Amino acid sequence: MENKLCKLLGIKYPVISGGMVWCSGWRLASAVSNNGGLGLIGAGSMHPETLREHIHKCKDATSKPFGVNVPMLYPELDKIIDIIIEEKVPIVVTSAGNPKTYTQRFHDAGIIVMHVVSSTKFALKAQEAGVDAVIAEGFEAGGHNGRDETTSFALIPGVSQVLSIPLVAAGGMYNGQSLAAALALGADGIQIGTRFALSTESSANNIFKELCRNLKEGDTILTLKQLAPVRLIKNKFCNEILAMEQQGKTTEELRAHLGKGRAKKGIFEGDTDEGELEIGQIASLIKKEEAVKEIFDDIISGYNHTMGMLPKNF
């Protein structure tokens, strides 16, 4: 299944795991890389020295390429970037900021850079900034999201028409059918978040995982648009936020109610009432616990089956 994304990243399959806060530690990242994809460590929930520890453990657990996801709004960003360069991490995925700020510095250190976008406009800006690949994420995705609410099936074709660098489709990506569809729409691979977030190797709390496996269609919603749009499970905290938004509360009031550590409380500690429970729409299809190897076996067999079902003159 080798293509230009696989060649760029040195991976067997064009499948990337999302760098998700409180889910994407070294166990998940190394398992994805060992099974032929690109595993990402999510730096967004880590103090600098915690990240260094995860990088060391990931290196011990895999000889394959792996990367680090870096939200550029991170308060200790310079320390995080120093560690990534010092530890010679081969691949970085940047998000939530201007990729131009650090891309050249990463390139000078021999690091491949991908950047997450939610629109064609920002995909072009990322390419102009010199990144090596773009991850275009549709509105279906969990966690922080684009304000325009563009779905993956609308976003990917438009982005693919304007890019000359590899394109990764994200948001609602789940299995082999997703991979086949993304390639048909012009992408070179997919990034899967939710399914890996609920895997055995994810560091998310089992209470959170079990809740997600019982979700139905419509049980998540995009909210907090005045701050930074984020897809959440409709729990007590989310309903409070929705009520505040309907009442016209200010950005400062919403930020105060959000407070600090809400995602950790929900995803990592398992507080399903007061926690900020970030997950994608595709969670409604996930009903059982799976190890990363099982997920990859399903993706590859599903992809081959889907391609075999297409008419030969397709």
What does this protein structure show overall?
The protein is of the alpha/beta class and 314 residues long. It folds into two domains: 4-203 and 287-309, TIM Barrel (Alpha-Beta Barrel), CATH 3.20.20.70; 208-282, no CATH class. The protein is 41% helix and 15% strand. The chain has 14 helices and eleven strands. The strands form two sheets. The chain has an eight-stranded parallel β-sheet. Strands 7-11-10 form a three-stranded antiparallel β-sheet, with helices on one face. α5 (103-108) links the parallel β4 and β5 (112-117). The protein is globular, with a radius of gyration of 18 Å. The two termini are 18 Å apart. 51% of the residues are buried. The model has no long low-confidence stretch (mean pLDDT 96).
